Amino acid sequence: MNGRLTVMAIGPHPDDLEVLCGGTLALYSKGGHKVFMYYVTDGTKGGLSKPKEVIKAERAEEAKNSAALIDAVSFGGDFVDGEVVADMESRLVVIDAIRRCSPEVIIAPHPNDYHTDHVNVSKLVFEAIYHAAIPHTVTKHPPLKVLPILYYMDTVTGIGFVPEQFVDITEVIEVKKNMMRAHATQIDFVKEHHGVDFIDLIEISGRFRGYQCGVRYAEGFVLSQGWNRVPTSRLLP
Protein backbone atom coordinates (compact mmCIF):
# COMPACT_ATOMS: atom_id res chain seq x y z
CA MET A 1 0.00 0.00 0.00
CA ASN A 2 1.62 3.22 -1.18
CA GLY A 3 0.77 6.64 0.27
CA ARG A 4 -2.19 7.74 2.32
CA LEU A 5 -5.61 6.59 1.18
CA THR A 6 -9.13 7.80 1.71
CA VAL A 7 -11.26 4.78 2.57
CA MET A 8 -15.05 4.74 2.53
CA ALA A 9 -16.84 1.83 4.19
CA ILE A 10 -20.53 1.55 3.34
CA GLY A 11 -22.81 -0.40 5.66
CA PRO A 12 -26.56 -0.89 5.25
CA HIS A 13 -27.23 -0.29 8.97
CA PRO A 14 -25.39 1.68 11.65
CA ASP A 15 -23.63 -1.38 13.16
CA ASP A 16 -22.81 -3.53 10.11
CA LEU A 17 -19.35 -2.10 9.52
CA GLU A 18 -18.25 -2.79 13.07
CA VAL A 19 -19.25 -6.45 12.79
CA LEU A 20 -17.93 -7.14 9.29
CA CYS A 21 -14.88 -4.93 8.74
CA GLY A 22 -14.29 -2.91 11.93
CA GLY A 23 -10.82 -4.33 12.47
CA THR A 24 -9.70 -3.42 8.97
CA LEU A 25 -11.03 0.12 9.37
CA ALA A 26 -9.15 0.42 12.66
CA LEU A 27 -5.94 -0.64 10.92
CA TYR A 28 -6.47 1.84 8.08
CA SER A 29 -6.90 4.64 10.60
CA LYS A 30 -3.94 3.48 12.66
CA GLY A 31 -1.85 3.59 9.50
CA GLY A 32 -2.68 7.25 8.91
CA HIS A 33 -5.39 6.78 6.28
CA LYS A 34 -8.66 8.75 6.26
CA VAL A 35 -11.71 6.62 7.04
CA PHE A 36 -15.36 7.42 6.37
CA MET A 37 -18.11 5.17 7.76
CA TYR A 38 -21.37 5.64 5.83
CA TYR A 39 -24.44 3.87 7.19
CA VAL A 40 -27.09 3.88 4.50
CA THR A 41 -30.26 3.47 6.57
CA ASP A 42 -31.50 5.13 9.72
CA GLY A 43 -31.67 1.87 11.70
CA THR A 44 -35.22 2.45 12.88
CA LYS A 45 -36.18 -1.24 12.69
CA GLY A 46 -33.56 -2.02 15.33
CA GLY A 47 -35.83 -1.81 18.36
CA LEU A 48 -38.91 -3.33 19.89
CA SER A 49 -40.80 -0.72 21.90
CA LYS A 50 -39.23 2.72 21.42
CA PRO A 51 -40.60 5.28 18.93
CA LYS A 52 -38.76 5.30 15.61
CA GLU A 53 -37.55 8.87 16.16
CA VAL A 54 -35.85 7.81 19.40
CA ILE A 55 -34.25 4.76 17.80
CA LYS A 56 -32.97 6.85 14.88
CA ALA A 57 -31.34 9.41 17.19
CA GLU A 58 -29.81 6.74 19.41
CA ARG A 59 -28.34 4.82 16.52
CA ALA A 60 -26.87 7.91 14.90
CA GLU A 61 -25.18 8.80 18.19
CA GLU A 62 -23.90 5.24 18.63
CA ALA A 63 -22.46 5.23 15.11
CA LYS A 64 -20.73 8.54 15.80
CA ASN A 65 -19.26 7.26 19.08
CA SER A 66 -18.06 4.06 17.44
CA ALA A 67 -16.34 5.89 14.59
CA ALA A 68 -14.69 8.26 17.07
CA LEU A 69 -12.81 5.31 18.60
CA ILE A 70 -10.75 5.09 15.40
CA ASP A 71 -10.88 8.78 14.43
CA ALA A 72 -13.23 8.01 11.53
CA VAL A 73 -16.04 10.19 10.16
CA SER A 74 -19.54 8.74 10.55
CA PHE A 75 -22.55 9.88 8.52
CA GLY A 76 -25.65 8.52 6.84
CA GLY A 77 -29.23 7.52 7.56
CA ASP A 78 -30.42 8.57 4.10
CA PHE A 79 -32.87 5.66 3.73
CA VAL A 80 -35.50 4.07 5.95
CA ASP A 81 -34.32 0.84 7.55
CA GLY A 82 -35.62 -2.17 5.63
CA GLU A 83 -36.78 -0.12 2.65
CA VAL A 84 -33.68 0.19 0.44
CA VAL A 85 -34.44 -0.40 -3.23
CA ALA A 86 -32.05 -0.29 -6.16
CA ASP A 87 -33.63 2.40 -8.30
CA MET A 88 -32.27 5.54 -9.98
CA GLU A 89 -33.26 7.87 -7.17
CA SER A 90 -31.45 5.71 -4.64
CA ARG A 91 -28.42 5.38 -6.88
CA LEU A 92 -28.06 9.17 -7.03
CA VAL A 93 -28.07 9.36 -3.22
CA VAL A 94 -25.27 6.80 -3.03
CA ILE A 95 -23.35 8.52 -5.83
CA ASP A 96 -23.42 11.78 -3.92
CA ALA A 97 -22.31 10.09 -0.69
CA ILE A 98 -19.34 8.58 -2.53
CA ARG A 99 -18.48 11.93 -4.11
CA ARG A 100 -18.61 13.58 -0.69
CA CYS A 101 -15.81 11.27 0.50
CA SER A 102 -13.82 11.04 -2.76
CA PRO A 103 -12.32 7.68 -1.76
CA GLU A 104 -9.63 5.59 -3.40
CA VAL A 105 -11.02 2.47 -1.69
CA ILE A 106 -14.62 1.49 -0.98
CA ILE A 107 -15.70 -1.44 1.21
CA ALA A 108 -19.30 -2.55 0.70
CA PRO A 109 -21.62 -5.50 1.44
CA HIS A 110 -21.27 -8.69 -0.54
CA PRO A 111 -24.05 -9.23 -3.14
CA ASN A 112 -25.12 -12.50 -1.48
CA ASP A 113 -25.65 -11.36 2.11
CA TYR A 114 -28.72 -12.28 4.15
CA HIS A 115 -30.75 -9.06 4.26
CA THR A 116 -32.47 -7.22 1.40
CA ASP A 117 -30.91 -3.94 2.54
CA HIS A 118 -27.46 -5.57 2.31
CA VAL A 119 -28.15 -6.99 -1.15
CA ASN A 120 -29.58 -3.75 -2.52
CA VAL A 121 -26.85 -1.58 -0.99
CA SER A 122 -24.27 -3.86 -2.62
CA LYS A 123 -25.98 -3.40 -5.98
CA LEU A 124 -26.31 0.36 -5.52
CA VAL A 125 -22.63 0.77 -4.65
CA PHE A 126 -21.54 -1.26 -7.68
CA GLU A 127 -23.75 0.86 -9.93
CA ALA A 128 -22.83 4.15 -8.27
CA ILE A 129 -19.04 3.86 -8.48
CA TYR A 130 -18.86 4.20 -12.26
CA HIS A 131 -21.40 7.01 -12.42
CA ALA A 132 -19.71 8.87 -9.55
CA ALA A 133 -17.00 9.82 -12.06
CA ILE A 134 -19.37 10.87 -14.86
CA PRO A 135 -19.72 14.69 -15.02
CA HIS A 136 -23.16 14.58 -16.62
CA THR A 137 -24.48 12.57 -13.67
CA VAL A 138 -25.27 15.61 -11.55
CA THR A 139 -25.45 15.58 -7.76
CA LYS A 140 -24.59 18.05 -5.01
CA HIS A 141 -20.89 17.13 -4.93
CA PRO A 142 -18.53 17.21 -7.94
CA PRO A 143 -17.63 14.04 -9.87
CA LEU A 144 -14.67 11.87 -8.95
CA LYS A 145 -11.51 12.04 -11.02
CA VAL A 146 -10.54 8.40 -10.43
CA LEU A 147 -12.73 5.32 -9.95
CA PRO A 148 -12.38 3.81 -6.46
CA ILE A 149 -11.35 0.21 -5.95
CA LEU A 150 -14.23 -1.85 -4.51
CA TYR A 151 -13.84 -4.62 -1.94
CA TYR A 152 -16.73 -6.70 -0.67
CA MET A 153 -16.65 -7.42 3.05
CA ASP A 154 -17.68 -10.71 4.63
CA THR A 155 -21.29 -11.78 5.00
CA VAL A 156 -22.83 -12.14 8.46
CA THR A 157 -21.46 -15.48 9.82
CA GLY A 158 -19.66 -16.02 6.51
CA ILE A 159 -22.47 -17.87 4.73
CA GLY A 160 -21.96 -17.95 0.95
CA PHE A 161 -18.68 -16.03 1.16
CA VAL A 162 -15.23 -17.31 0.15
CA PRO A 163 -12.50 -14.78 1.03
CA GLU A 164 -9.84 -14.01 -1.55
CA GLN A 165 -7.82 -11.62 0.63
CA PHE A 166 -7.38 -11.53 4.40
CA VAL A 167 -6.50 -8.80 6.86
CA ASP A 168 -4.80 -9.74 10.13
CA ILE A 169 -6.77 -7.84 12.77
CA THR A 170 -5.19 -9.51 15.81
CA GLU A 171 -3.68 -6.29 17.15
CA VAL A 172 -7.01 -4.42 16.96
CA ILE A 173 -9.52 -7.11 17.92
CA GLU A 174 -10.34 -5.35 21.21
CA VAL A 175 -10.79 -2.07 19.34
CA LYS A 176 -13.24 -3.81 17.03
CA LYS A 177 -15.18 -5.20 19.99
CA ASN A 178 -15.27 -1.78 21.64
CA MET A 179 -16.58 -0.26 18.42
CA MET A 180 -19.40 -2.77 18.55
CA ARG A 181 -19.98 -2.12 22.26
CA ALA A 182 -20.64 1.52 21.34
CA HIS A 183 -23.85 0.19 19.74
CA ALA A 184 -25.29 -0.74 23.12
CA THR A 185 -28.92 -0.61 22.02
CA GLN A 186 -28.23 -3.14 19.26
CA ILE A 187 -26.33 -5.52 21.47
CA ASP A 188 -29.41 -5.66 23.70
CA PHE A 189 -31.89 -5.77 20.80
CA VAL A 190 -30.14 -8.57 18.90
CA LYS A 191 -29.76 -10.65 22.06
CA GLU A 192 -33.46 -10.28 22.83
CA HIS A 193 -34.83 -10.58 19.30
CA HIS A 194 -32.37 -13.01 17.65
CA GLY A 195 -30.66 -14.71 20.59
CA VAL A 196 -27.26 -13.61 19.25
CA ASP A 197 -24.40 -12.02 21.19
CA PHE A 198 -22.65 -9.60 18.83
CA ILE A 199 -19.36 -9.70 20.76
CA ASP A 200 -19.38 -13.49 20.66
CA LEU A 201 -20.11 -13.34 16.93
CA ILE A 202 -17.12 -11.05 16.37
CA GLU A 203 -14.89 -13.36 18.40
CA ILE A 204 -15.93 -16.56 16.64
CA SER A 205 -15.97 -15.09 13.12
CA GLY A 206 -12.58 -13.46 13.65
CA ARG A 207 -11.01 -16.67 14.95
CA PHE A 208 -12.46 -18.71 12.08
CA ARG A 209 -11.11 -16.37 9.43
CA GLY A 210 -7.85 -16.27 11.37
CA TYR A 211 -7.56 -20.06 11.21
CA GLN A 212 -8.01 -19.87 7.46
CA CYS A 213 -5.00 -17.61 6.95
CA GLY A 214 -2.78 -18.63 9.87
CA VAL A 215 -3.23 -15.72 12.30
CA ARG A 216 -5.17 -15.28 15.53
CA TYR A 217 -7.95 -13.02 14.17
CA ALA A 218 -8.73 -11.96 10.61
CA GLU A 219 -11.33 -10.42 8.32
CA GLY A 220 -11.94 -11.61 4.76
CA PHE A 221 -12.59 -9.67 1.56
CA VAL A 222 -13.28 -10.17 -2.14
CA LEU A 223 -12.10 -7.71 -4.78
CA SER A 224 -14.81 -6.59 -7.22
CA GLN A 225 -12.98 -7.04 -10.50
CA GLY A 226 -13.86 -5.01 -13.56
CA TRP A 227 -12.29 -2.86 -16.21
CA ASN A 228 -10.30 0.03 -14.74
CA ARG A 229 -10.98 -1.22 -11.18
CA VAL A 230 -8.21 -3.77 -10.57
CA PRO A 231 -5.26 -2.45 -8.53
CA THR A 232 -1.69 -3.51 -9.28
CA SER A 233 -0.78 -3.53 -5.58
CA ARG A 234 -2.49 -4.49 -2.34
CA LEU A 235 -4.67 -1.73 -0.93
CA LEU A 236 -5.91 -3.55 2.16
CA PRO A 237 -3.88 -3.14 5.38
Q: What is the mean pLDDT?
A: 96
Fill in the CATH topology.
Rossmann fold
Report low-confidence residues grouped into runs of 5 or more. none
Q: Given this structure, which CATH class is correct?
A: Alpha Beta
**Order of strands in the sheet with most strands:** 3-2-1-4-5-7-6
Structure description:
- The protein has a single domain, classed as Rossmann fold (3-Layer(aba) Sandwich), CATH 3.40.50.
- It is built from seven helices and seven strands, in the order βαβαβαβαββαααβ.
- With 237 residues, the chain is of the alpha/beta class.
- The model has no long low-confidence stretch (mean pLDDT 96).
- Strands 3-2-1-4-5-7-6 form a seven-stranded mixed sheet, sandwiched between helices.
Quick summary:
This protein is of the alpha/beta class and 237 residues long. It has seven helices and seven strands; from the N terminus they run E-H-E-H-E-H-E-H-E-E-H-H-H-E.
What tags apply to this protein structure?
Rossmann fold; 7 strands; 237 residues; seven-stranded mixed sheet; 41% helix
Q: How are the SSEs placed, and which strands pair?
A:
Elements: E1 6-11, H1 16-30, E2 34-41, H2 52-68, E3 73-79, H3 88-101, E4 105-108, H4 116-131, E5 149-153, E6 165-168, H5 173-181, H6 184-194, H7 198-213, E7 218-223
Helix pairs in contact: 1-5, 3-4, 5-7
